Amino acid sequence: MVKYGCARLNLERRINSGLIEMLQDIDNMVDKTPQGLNPSPIIHHVLGNLLNDLVFGIKYEKNNVTWKYLQHLQEEGVKHIGVSMAVNFLPFLRYLPSTRRTINFLLSGKHQTHAIYDALISNQRSKLRSCDTFIEEQEECILTYFLKEAAKRQEAGRPDAAFCDDIQLRHLMADLFGAGVDTTFTTIRWALLYIALYPTVQKRLREELRQRLVVNEPPSLKDVEALPYLRATIAEVQRIRTVVPLGIPHGTTKEIKIGDFKIPSNTMIMPVVWAVHMNPILFNAPNTFKPERFLDLEGRFSIPNYFLPFQVGKRMCLGEELARNILHLYIANIVYHYDWIRISPEDAMLIDLTGNCGLTLTPPDYIIIFSKNNK
């Protein structure tokens, strides 16, 4: 997930593989359902398969039973994790029937997911032991890197080899896959919804793409710097509908003081990112969707230091570069590929932009009408 060089080009190629599949699937659905379609299942499949590729080194067919289950578990699990977070602060809640059902669902899903992961780990470990050259020819993935590093540390007798066990690996893969899919998938859903609801924004996006891209060449990562309004639009989506409103829990390693408040050591801290992004002192008219707020007087993309979609500091989101690449390529190519993206006026009046808050803030389901162009 670097910003320059061959690794970046390879990552873009892998992102584009799913992107091409997504556009083809939407095109096919447009022909069958001219009244509009819900793009979420299509996007979820290709984006999830990209993370499957990067984390596990595999891809699933759309109707694969295991993949269908993992998608369902990921969607439902994110909702339940958010709801059950109160148990961290009020442990007695775990004895309530509704909370116990939620916890049982999460634990059952965890055990079944880990069983799937164990099979993947065993299969990849066998390949590593039997034929190193075969693995070298495969696409890079987190699972292979972890297994190689673990073997290297164990052979060297390093004390930190104890941390490279399968328990750590299961949780690592679950974290990377879950966080990588859900946050980016949700941001894309919000972005398409806002772009469809704001035709002036969509028109300006399309004009920028047509003016600044090579004729008949779809947008690529090398074009991003030349597309400030695209970047501003994505940033405004991330601000107005912060995907993780409460951020990710952090902890203090020593006593600290913020203003007049002393916070003891070993205290859980929940950063309320939503309160920052919706602060009228920092962002004028925060409930108004206005990408221009992220452009300077010369029309260049500019973000303030209090814009925190990936949090901040040494423990900020390690997938930031990957997420940005996906968002820029997906949104740019969808807008470029279609002459218009709209929601029927009747549906637009009924859509509640408040969102549904679990661990992430997700939009309601919606139907989009895509008008294909002749490119």
Description:
The protein is mainly alpha-helical and 375 residues long. The protein has a single domain (6-131, 138-371), classed as Cytochrome P450 (Cytochrome p450, Orthogonal Bundle), CATH 1.10.630. It contains twelve helices and eight strands. The chain has helices at 6-32, 40-56, 65-84, 97-130, 132-137, 142-155, 166-197, 199-212, 228-240, 273-277, 320-337, 345-350; strands at residues 250-251, 256-258, 261-263, 268-269, 338-342, 356-357, 361-362, 369-372. The strands form four sheets. It has a two-stranded antiparallel sheet. A two-stranded antiparallel sheet has the order 2-3. A hairpin with a 3-residue loop joins β6 (356-357) and β7. 29% of the residues are buried. InterPro entries: Cyt_P450 (IPR001128), Cyt_P450_E_grp-I (IPR002401), Cyt_P450_sf (IPR036396), Cytochrome_P450_fam2 (IPR050182). Heme binds at residue 317. Its cofactor is heme.
Q: Can you describe this structure in just a few lines?
A:
This protein has a single domain, classed as Cytochrome P450 (Cytochrome p450, Orthogonal Bundle).
Stretches where pLDDT is under 50 for at least 5 consecutive residues are none
- Percentage beta strand: 5-15%
The CATH fourth-level homologous superfamily: Cytochrome P450
Q: How large is the radius of gyration?
A: 22 Å
Give the helix tally: 12
CATH architecture level-2 label: Orthogonal Bundle
What topology, given as strand order, has the largest sheet?
1-4
> Count the strands?
8
Q: Largest sheet at a glance?
A: 2 strands, antiparallel
